[in-house]
Each structure stands twice: as C-alpha cells, then as structure tokens.
Amino acid sequence: MHSKDYPKEPEGDFIPGIYNYCDRWCERCIYTDKCRLFATENIIKEDITKKKEQEQSIERNKSFWNRIHKIIEEVEDLYDEPDVTEDDATIPLFGKSEEDEEAEEAMKEYEAFRNKAAQHPLTKAASDYSTRAYQWFKQREGTLKQHYNQTTKEFRVTCQGITDKEVLQKLTGAVEIILWYEFQLSIKIKRAFTSLNQEEAEPEFFEGIQKDSEGSARVALIGINRSISSWSYLLHHLETERESIRPMIKTLMQLKMKMEQNFPGAMNFKWPPE
Ligand code: SF4
Fold this sequence. Notes:
Layout: H1 36-54, H2 58-80, H3 98-118, H4 121-139, E1 144-149, E2 154-159, H5 165-182, H6 184-201, H7 212-237, H8 242-262
The protein binds iron/sulfur cluster.
The site of iron/sulfur cluster (SF4) has 12 residues, from helix 1.
C-alpha cells in the first residue's frame, strides 16, 4: 500500500482515547466532534465514495487481474528456482527472537484470561440474555414490526393495536436501544472480566491508571440500565407480553447488581477522559 493510499489525518480538537469506552453508537453520540475515530471513519467513507465514483471500466479491472496473474506466475517461477528448496521454505524464515518468544508468551497468557472471562457466569448470563432477546423479537415479527429505510436510514416500529404516534415513537426508541445493546452486553462484560483477570495478575503494572476493566464494565452497565428502561416501556405498553418481558428485566436487574458488585469503581470511570 502506498502512503498516498492511507486516509488523511483528521484535524480537530479531539479527546485522546474517547472511543475506547463508548458504546460505538456514533449516530446517537454527542461527542462526535471530539472523536478522532469518528472523524477518521468519515474520511475513509468519503474516500470510498470518491473511489467508487472514480471506478473505471471493466478494462481497468481486467488489467488489474492481469497484473495479479503476472505476480502469481512470478512467484511460481521463484519456487522453480533450484536454489530454493523445500527445506529452505520453512517458516519462520528468520528464526525466533527473544522478543517474539515474549510476545508469544504474552498472547498465550491473554488468551487464558479471555477464556476464563468467557466462562464467567455473568458473561454466560449476558450471552443467554442476547439469545433470548433476539428470539423474543424474532417470534414477534408479525405483531411488533421493524421497518428500516435504507435511503433515509430511518428505523421505526409498528405494533398491532397501537396507533398513538407518540407511543409508537417511544416504542421505536425503546426497541432501538434493546437491539443496540442486545449483543454488546456480553462482549463488554467478557472484556471487563478479561481485563480484571489481567489487572489482578499484575496489580503493580496497572497502579495509578484508569482500569480497562472498569471502563468496559461502565459501558456494560450503561447498556444494562438503558435496556431495563426500554423493556420496562415495552412492559407498560404491550399488555399481552407482560409475562414474556418480566424475565428479561429480571435477568438484566441481576446482571446489573452483580456487575456493580464485581466492578464497584465502574461508574467512577472518567469518560470522556479529560
Ligand atoms: S465516542 Fe462517540 S463518535 Fe466516537 S466512536 Fe464512540 S460513539 Fe462513536
């Protein structure tokens, strides 16, 4: 990749690392003007659009593939060279340095922390919640309909028996929130426990800095709180669904309580950072 192909550096008064502990819901974020990631993604999107517009005829693509074929042929020729034997082609070609071994060791250790976090009962409970919430909406596709307009990017929900515009608007917001966090919760909870495992293994290394475990737990807790409010709105307006919604709220309440116990400092985590 040529350096000119890299997206240009965004300019602005960005808050360093603000994107590390957000919920990535950029369309609803009030810090887009402070976020380098948001600005970079916009530049990339603009670049892609420009490139698409510049895309030329099939001939150009043909010449691209011709070039690729030539490269493949050249590589094949290289393997025909008598001085390159199968033995020489072992990987890695340069042998392992001490740093490589340390990095490998660190990766193994991190994997172990991640696996342990994946087995944590709260990660499993959150993952179970995701599946149940997903199925809940799937089973109600006929009555609680979701509509998405690709062009306007508008999302709205209609519901059998509800005609009040304001209620439908709020219902849309509530469904949007539940769907946004539905799968994110278990990811954030798993990350919180992965980092907690790391921090507990090497406490001196993390002393005096904001803990990643608390930052991730904070995002999870915000998602849990918003999901509880949203399910509660559904509970209030979908009378026939009360029995099916109550377990969702109960699960989320338990998750909230346990997450607060495991990460007592989560809500003190400073975000956005100053
Ligand atoms: S801080 Fe806001 S704009 Fe930046 S990645 Fe997170 S949600 Fe998106």
